Amino acid sequence: MINQLNSKRAELKGVKDEIARLRKNRDDIVSTLKQLKDRRLELLNRIKELIDRVRKYRELMKMINDLVGGKPVDKDKLKELIDKLEFEHEISPTDPEKEWEFFRTIQQLERELNAAEVLSRIKEYISRDSQEIEKMRKERMELGQQMRDLYSNALANIKAQIQELRKKRESIVNEIIQLKSKRDSLKARRDELKKAILSKSAEIKELRARLRELNDELNKYQLLLAAARKSKNLAIKRQEEARIKEELRRRAEEGLQKLMRGGERVSLNDLLGLESDEDNEK
Amino acid sequence: MAFLNEEELESKIKELSGEILKIRSEIESREKEREGLRNELNRVREELSA
């Protein structure tokens, strides 16, 4: 039970460590997603700024076009025209009226040339900004795809793994609870058995003490019985000896009376109260 | 102790012998019970440390 519990605890620790590792991975991915989202927002704001600027450039272009009469302006043709007029002016005879007209024309053409140069620069700006907008839109799309990939692959996979491990952890925790309950029951049973064994040993000790007492008592009575039997045998022996002694005395007296009466043959044994050899042989 | 004759002594010895046999039987019975409890305790301990 204890080994099983230790094994389950080690398994639980492994699962917890794995969950912690996956959570860290998940947090890293969430952090990356947040960074990507921030970058996308930053790009969006920048795109909005550039779109606004392009809109302003277009308004400016419209205003300049309106100023130069809405004509399509070609810088090279204007330069060519100015050069041509200047050449003609140099080779033509001097006429004050024509001089004034030339001057006004050149002035107008130079204004248009300036406007054309400004428009050309604005177009460059618009083109540059549009390219940047396109580049940033592309980056935003790539970031969006990257975020979707991270979310639907890596993050979803980690979440599924964490979910699975949580179930496993719950299952191990339940097993540990059951094992602990069983262990506690076994410990309680062990304690009961210890008490019962102690109680039984105490009973056995008591019975053995009682047995010793009874054996002592038995020995005592056996000794008394042996003594009583010995005493009885001794009394019987003494009675027998007294009877023999009386018999001897009686025979000795009979022998003496025979001797005193005379004529009768009396043996020494008769006188001593002993039986004759013949009697003994009989 | 009052003086007992031979028959009374024999009777007493018989009575004590009977009681001794009974006590021995009780000791044996309890030792068997204790042995059973010890075996169960060993099984429980083995299960606990498994």
Number of helices of chain B: 1
Overall 3D shape of chain B: rod-shaped
Instruction: Give the helix level of chain B as a range of percent.
Output: over 70%
Give the beta-strand count of chain B. 0
| DSSP, total strands of chain A | 0
Order of H and E elements of chain A:
HHHHH
Helix fraction of chain A, binned, reads over 70%
The radius of gyration computed from the alpha-carbon positions of chain B, rounded to a whole number of angstroms, is: 21 Å
Low-confidence stretches of chain A: 277-282
N-to-C order of helices and strands of chain B: H
Query: Pair with the most extensive interface?
Result: A-B, 32 and 29 residues
Biggest sheet layout of chain B: none
* Tertiary shape of chain A: rod-shaped
Give the rounded overall mean pLDDT of chain A: 89
Largest sheet of chain A: none
- What is the SS-derived class of chain A? mainly alpha
List low-pLDDT spans of chain B.
none
Looking at how many chains there are and whether they match, the oligomeric state comes to: heterodimer
Q: What percentage of the residues of chain A does DSSP assign to strands (E)?
A: under 5%
The Cα radius of gyration of chain A reads: 72 Å
Tell me the β content of chain B. under 5%
Offer a quick outline of the entry.
The complex is a heterodimer of chains A (282) and B (50). Chain A is mainly α and 282 residues long. Chain A has 5 helices and no strands.
Plain-language structure description:
The complex is a heterodimer of chains A (282) and B (50). Chain A has 282 residues and is mainly alpha-helical. Helix content of chain A is 92%, strand content 0%. Chain A has five helices and no strands. Chain A has helices at 2-67, 75-91, 96-261, 268-272, 277-281. Chain A is rod-shaped, with a radius of gyration of 72 Å. In chain B, 88% of the residues lie in helices and 0% in strands. Chain B contains one helix and no strands. Chain B has one helix at 6-49. The model of chain B has no long low-confidence stretch (mean pLDDT 92). Chain A binds chain B through residues 1-4, 183, 186-187, 189-190, 193-194, 196-197, 200-201, 203-204, 207-208, 210-211, 214-215, 217-218, 221-222, 224-225, 228-229, 232, and chain B through 4-6, 9-10, 12-13, 16-17, 19-20, 23-24, 26-27, 30-31, 33-34, 37-38, 40-41, 44-45, 47-50.
